[in-house]
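Format is sequence with structure; example below:
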Amino acid sequence: MAVVAQLLTLAVAWKFMEMELDWEAMLLTVFTLAAINVLSWLRLRNNSPVSNPELFAQLCVDVFALTVLLYYGGGSTNPFVSLYVLPLVIAAATLPSRYTWGMAALTVACYSLLMFFYIPLPHNHHDMGDNAFNSHVMGMWLGFVITALVVAYFVVQMAQAVRSRDEMLIQVREEILRNERIVALGTQAAGAAHELGTPLSTMAVV
């Protein structure tokens, strides 16, 4: 979904806004991200669990890809810079605190660098004055919509995962209690059989 959204954004900038950007570098970044997604999908086909460092590395790749795209697209002046919030939210919702702080440091560092090192967005005759301002406001709105949708999606998914885990824990707890009752009954039966078996054995011997 992120790759498709990035391609659509670049297509709009090229076709409708007629911007002259470094398309080769930006498209290479998007296709690299797509290739990593394919590799990740293949990796997830086996049943080995995803470790915290692996998930953190995936989020770092997303941050670096976004940083490259923003570098060629106006840096911190690009309204989509707010998308740095997304990997931070995902890290906070799914990873231990040290990874969350690491992601916070990474996103802040990338954002800060983009305030000083970036390629300014070109302006053409269609993009002067109010038009440029309106485009920026529209970009800010779209960035907020994307952020809100992704955050809401992950919060819903996390809530469902927590509920599923709680239901599973309840089932496991009930299973343990049931097994404990069965073991207790078996112990009582064995004790009763022993008490009955001893006198009968003695009588048989006599």
Notes: The two ends are 85 Å apart (CA to CA). Residues 130-205 form the longest helix (76 residues). The mean pLDDT is 82.
